[in-house]
């Protein structure tokens, strides 16, 4: 059975990108085959959802190519000892979101790491890779983060991660720190918001004790700096961070930085520092898709050991349009109301839950609002954007509007074409296809669409 799966994985290597193979498939196993159903072991529910969603057809085909006749696959979550926890067939979004049984919480990293506590590292033990949802909005960033863990101070140094507030940047970089400490508890790892770095530097200057600052920062093996955009206007701190960066980089010690934008978009940031931060690349996290949001909520419910109906999960996922932080907040609020009133989450929603919720976003946007918002963002009249002009920036704005109408409102290509005053729906198909393709590597476009997604619900 092992040889069969080894051959399947070799075949899959040639069908998917190297990054996706390492992120989703490398650690899967074939647990057995019964009645034409392959039982495939995965690490956690996040992987069961994403492997099924992205690779199911190819996996079944590869199994058949290797002499194992199967008609479907069942993805089962294993514990750390490689034993199956619970069988879960993942076939469709509805079946993914069935109410789950209660499970105990996982062991904290800190319990296996008595040498260095969260007080000295700034790390939160609960932030790890196992409970971070991998989706199309963040898979490249997660893959790169895991490469940092495998080779700290190597090719992915520095690791620069950016994205809007609340999309999971802090969770991911802290997961790197926790995993590095798990592998080597003697490492000197520090997570620090940039404002804390600034405060420590200023306090050392005022007290005329630079050695305290030097001892804390210049002897680190791994430095994780969060919210780097807050360094704006702090010229001396920029100089000191630049010096620290150079010393750590030259001695092959890992630097990890998060920010809400690319360095060249930070006003008055030292050009030398800006170029160094992204010299090994810049990786972004976008807002999660509907399916990713459902997976996040489902996994949180499993972790908390609470029962929540599929319809309730879908309701929250559909209506929270901001970020993961607000998604989790809305979930917590809903569960609290349900416990307080002795009702199920779905009953709470049916009884008028939205009237008591401040962060839940009703799906109130319209095609007209999307069109006007996009036109305003790209600084052109609506009439210009809707014209037949083939000028690059006008065409781009028009295609972004197509993309948003399809992805946010679920409009058909025909309906989208009608809203944009077009007769041919194939123009919409081509436009949306182009945006989808461009977003894979065009980080500026991804940033623009992320901003527009937030703006159209204001």
Descriptors for this entry?
four-stranded mixed sheet; five-stranded parallel sheet; 21 helices; 52% helix; globular; 458 residues; 9 strands; alpha/beta
Fold blueprint:
Blueprint lengths: L1 H12 L4 H8 L3 E6 L2 E6 L2 H21 L6 E7 L5 E3 L6 H4 L21 H4 L17 H12 L8 E4 L6 H15 L5 E5 H13 L3 H8 L4 E5 L8 H16 L3 E6 L11 H7 L4 E3 L5 H15 L5 H10 L4 H18 L3 H6 L16 H11 L4 H4 L6 H18 L3 H7 L5 H15 L3 H13 L3
Parallel strand pairs: 2-3, 5-8, 5-9, 6-7, 7-8
Antiparallel strand pairs: 1-2, 3-4
Question: What features would you describe in this structure?
Answer:
The chain has helices at 2-13, 18-25, 45-65, 93-96, 118-121, 139-150, 169-183, 194-206, 210-217, 235-250, 271-277, 290-304, 310-319, 324-341, 345-350, 367-377, 382-385, 392-409, 413-419, 425-439, 443-455, and strands at residues 29-34, 37-42, 72-78, 84-86, 159-162, 189-193, 222-226, 254-259, 282-284. Helix 2 packs across helix 6 (139-150) and helix 16 (367-377) packs antiparallel against helix 18 (392-409). The model is unreliable at 80-119 and 355-359 (pLDDT under 50). The protein is 52% helix and 10% strand. The N and C termini lie far apart (54 Å). The protein is built from 21 helices and nine strands. The protein is globular, with a radius of gyration of 24 Å. By secondary structure, the chain is α/β, with parallel strands linked by helices. Strand 2 (37-42), helix 3 and strand 3 (72-78) form a beta-alpha-beta unit.
Mean pLDDT: 82
The helix/strand series, from N terminus to C terminus, equals HHEEHEEHHHEHEHHEHEHEHHHHHHHHHH
Strand order of the largest sheet: 6-7-8-5-9
* Cα shape: globular
**Estimated helix fraction:** 40-55%
């Amino acid at each position: 059975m092992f040889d069969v799966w080894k051959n399947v994985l070799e075949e899959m290597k040639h069908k998917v990108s190297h990054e996706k193979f390492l992120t989703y498939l490398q650690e899967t196993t074939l647990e057995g085959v019964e009645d034409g159903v392959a039982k495939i072991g995965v690490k956690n529910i996040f992987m069961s959802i994403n492997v099924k969603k992205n690779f199911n057809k190819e996996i079944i085909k590869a199994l058949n190519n290797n002499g194992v006749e199967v008609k479907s696959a069942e993805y089962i979550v294993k514990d750390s000892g490689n034993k199956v926890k619970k069988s879960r067939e993942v076939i469709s979004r509805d079946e993914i979101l069935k109410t789950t049984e209660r499970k105990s919480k996982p062991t904290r990293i800190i319990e296996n790491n008595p040498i260095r506590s969260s007080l000295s590292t700034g790390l939160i033990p609960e932030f790890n890779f196992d409970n971070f949802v991998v989706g199309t909005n963040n898979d490249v960033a997660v893959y790169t983060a895991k490469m940092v863990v495998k080779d700290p101070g190597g090719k992915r140094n520095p690791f620069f991660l950016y994205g809007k507030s609340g999309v999971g940047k802090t969770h991911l970089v802290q997961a790197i720190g926790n995993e590095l400490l798990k592998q080597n508890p003697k490492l000197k790892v520090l997570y620090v918001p940039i404002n804390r770095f600034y405060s420590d530097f200023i306090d050392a200057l005022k007290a005329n004790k630079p050695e305290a600052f030097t001892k804390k920062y210049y002897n680190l093996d791994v430095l994780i700096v969060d919210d780097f955009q807050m360094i704006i206007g702090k010229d001396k701190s920029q100089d000191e961070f630049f010096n620290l960066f150079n010393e750590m980089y030259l001695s092959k010690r890992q630097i990890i930085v998060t920010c809400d934008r690319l360095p060249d978009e930070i006003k008055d940031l030292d050009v030398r520092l800006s170029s160094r931060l992204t010299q090994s690349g810049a990786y972004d996290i976008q807002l999660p898709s509907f399916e990713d949001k459902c997976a996040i909520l489902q996994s949180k419910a499993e972790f908390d050991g609470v029962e929540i109906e599929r319809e309730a999960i879908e309701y929250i996922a559909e209506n929270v349009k901001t970020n993961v932080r607000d998604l989790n907040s809305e979930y917590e609020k809903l569960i609290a109301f349900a416990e307080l009133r002795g009702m199920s989450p779905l009953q709470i929603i049916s009884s008028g839950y939205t009237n008591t919720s401040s962060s839940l976003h009703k799906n109130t946007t319209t095609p007209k609002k999307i069109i006007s918002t996009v036109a305003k963002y790209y600084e052109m009249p609506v009439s210009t954007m809707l014209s037949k002009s083939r000028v690059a920036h006008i065409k781009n704005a028009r295609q972004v509007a197509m993309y948003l109408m399809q992805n946010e409102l679920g409009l058909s290509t025909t309906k989208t074409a009608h809203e944009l005053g077009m007769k041919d729906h194939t123009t919409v198909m081509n436009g949306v296809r182009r945006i989808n393709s461009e977003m894979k590597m065009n980080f500026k476009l991804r940033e623009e669409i992320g901003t527009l997604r937030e703006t159209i619900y204001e």
